[in-house]
Amino acid sequence: MAKVLERLKQQRCSHVVFTDCKHDVNVKKIVPLVAKLVDNSPRYHRAESTEYSILVIGVPNVGKSSLINSLRRLHLKKGKATPVGGDPGVTKAVLTRIQVCEKPLMYLVDTPGVLAPKLGDVETGMKLAVCGAIHDHLVGEDIMADYLLYALNRQQQFRYVQRYGLAEACDDIGLVLKHVALAQGRTQKVKVLTGTGNVNMVMLNYPAAAYEFLRDFRAGRLGRVTLD
Predict the structure, then answer these.
(1) Which domains does the chain have, with CATH numbers?
(2) How far apart are CA 225 and CA 48, in angstroms?
(3) How far apart are CA 94 and CA 113, in angstroms?
(4) How far apart are CA 58 and CA 41, in angstroms?
(5) Triad 53, 59, 60: Cα angle to 5°
(6) Alpha carbon separation from 159 to 1, 122, 165, 196 (Å, rounded)
(7) Cβ-based neighbours of 194, under 8 Å, separated by 6 or more
């Protein structure tokens, strides 16, 4: 977390709040901070305008809609105002203003995720894909799983060893996915044509295992890992 703060500071982002919208950790800090920053900044028609309208932006699947819903839940005791999901592209258009607080009167505007028109390098794109900012099928779950295993090993994050019942850490994605499939029960029935007739065989489903591997990472079940 300290490294992330230092990187953001270098990018002139001096006001940072780490949040967890599933448990509303630190979410209450956002409205007072935003109000303070807006009050201390130059604005037109300050006397006539007593409300705050804030645009929420970020890469796809980063949790923009979840943040808005969390703020409404905490400050207004209201339910969801915008749909959320584990895949990029759930929010497809700029929505109308959504009230998230009464005092001060604050509205947030949810937006579709945005990415730079051109990524700096392949690894940056791979990191975004592994985190769910790019649709899995555009990259391939098997390729993403292979990169994720490399990233976990590089950072000595070996929680996957115990979770999937491996004897030790390894860099063979095929072996890891085999254990994922066995641990998660990811199998598929395959019809095999033989000289004596058709035979149904149960085989490990490696694509499904790769997806489970990625989903466990995104859910934090493989540890608190930052790819950067």
Answers:
(1) 1-110 (no CATH), 122-219 (1.10.1580.10)
(2) 46
(3) 10
(4) 22
(5) 100
(6) 19, 26, 10, 46
(7) none
Per the CB < 8 A criterion, the answer to whether 148 and 213 are in contact is yes
Q: What is the pLDDT of residues 46-104, one digit of tens each?
A: 556 667 788 888 888 888 888 888 888 888 877 665 555 555 545 544 566 788 788 88
In the structure encoding, which two tokens stand for residue 85, read together?
């999901």
Q: What is the pTM of this model?
A: 0.71
Q: Which two tokens stand for residue 138?
A: 């555009």
Q: What does the block give as tokens for 97?
A: 């203003």
Condensed to tens digits (0 to 9), the pLDDT of residues 149-207 reads 999 999 999 999 999 999 999 999 999 999 999 998 888 887 777 667 677 778 899 99
Tell whether omega for the bond before 104 is within 30 degrees of 0, i.e. cis: yes
Provide the 10 A C-beta neighbour count for residue 21.
19
